[in-house]
Structure formats: structure tokens, C-alpha cells
Amino acid sequence: MARAGGEATMTTLLLFVLLPMIVTEGRVTKGGASAVERRSVLDDGLGLTPPMGTQTCSKTMPGSLGYEEQDAKTFAAWGIDYLKYDNCNNQDPDMLEVGNGGMTTEEYRSHFSIWALAKAWAAILSGGRVAVVLWNRGSSRATITAKWPDIGIVSPSTIVNARDLWAHADIGHLQGEITATVDSHACKMYILTPL
Fold this sequence. Notes:
Layout (H helix, E strand, L loop, with lengths): L10 H6 L5 E3 L2 E4 L1 H6 L9 E2 L19 H11 L3 E2 L21 H12 L5 E3 L5 E6 L6 E6 L11 E6 L4 E7 L1 E6 L4 E8 L1
Parallel strand pairs: 3-4
Antiparallel strand pairs: 1-2, 5-6, 6-11, 7-10, 8-9, 8-11
Keywords: Disulfide bond, Glycosidase, Hydrolase, Signal
Catalytic activity: Hydrolysis of terminal, non-reducing alpha-D-galactose residues in alpha-D-galactosides, including galactose oligosaccharides, galactomannans and galactolipids
Organism: Musa troglodytarum (fe'i banana)
């Protein structure tokens, strides 16, 4: 997939800007600057969502990877007000998809749990507490273990109270690790509070 030399190849404009454009052979030949001229109809300015990777969301054109400087200059010349880079084709929980259809309850729960941890499978909270998600991305049930040093609890001898956030129940006191059997595409999410 080659990128057109000299001209910006922005599927972003085709997918996300709600202004008419004329595109030939994958090149934006009209629309960038002329679209900006008509942006006065928008109260909050004009923004784009360019793809960060090697491909666009449609996987039919090259993305911005390696062309960031060229694209930034093009966007600046067009008077674009803001950019929100998209991570199409990558794990990118920047938006909650809960309730939009297409996933099981367990998949929605997993999506929300991972999103809540902001791309980390464990998070340090106030008071020395730790949030941890044991997420099974596999196709069958699995046993998953997280050891204290791997999730930010320095001493393996630390005893914690573990609370299952989805079951709304304390599961007891644990030392050194937490283990759970997790269904396919499901997760267990806990808050571990040192005693």
C-alpha cells in the first residue's frame, strides 16, 4: 500500500469530515482547504480523526504512521482546529462501546473493566489499594494468576482483602497472589486493600 507522494492521502477526510469532497485515485484533490472555507457552519471548529497506524480504519488506504510531519503541515495549511488520533486496527479503549450491540454481557463487562483501568491491567489507587483485572482473551475457560510484585504490591507477604467488583462481594484475605478461573472473553475485576 503506497502513499501518494507530495499530496496528503487522508481517508480521515472521507470518513469523518461531514463536508463534500472530491477525491480521485485516493488523493484529496479538492476539499481540504475548500472544506475549511465552509467550516463557518460549525460552531466548534473543524477537527479530524487521522489514523495513527499503517492503515486507515477501512484498511484500504495508508494511515499517518511515518507521515505525521507532512500531515501536520497539511492540516495546519487547511486551518484545522484540532486532531484526535484514532488507533484503528489496534487495541484502543478510548470509547465505551457498552450497549451498542454485537457483544455478550461478559464481553461488555470485560470492555468496561479494561477501559476503566486506562490500558493497564492493574492500577494503584489511594490508600495503597490496587485494582486488578484478570482478563481471559482466549477461546476457552482459563485459570489466571496475578502475583503481588507484578501488580504493584511490593512485598509478597502483604495480606489484602480482595473485593470482587462485579459480584459486589468480598472474597476474603489473600497473600502473595490472586487466582481466578475466568470464562472465555470474560474478566474478574478486584480491589485489593492491604490489611
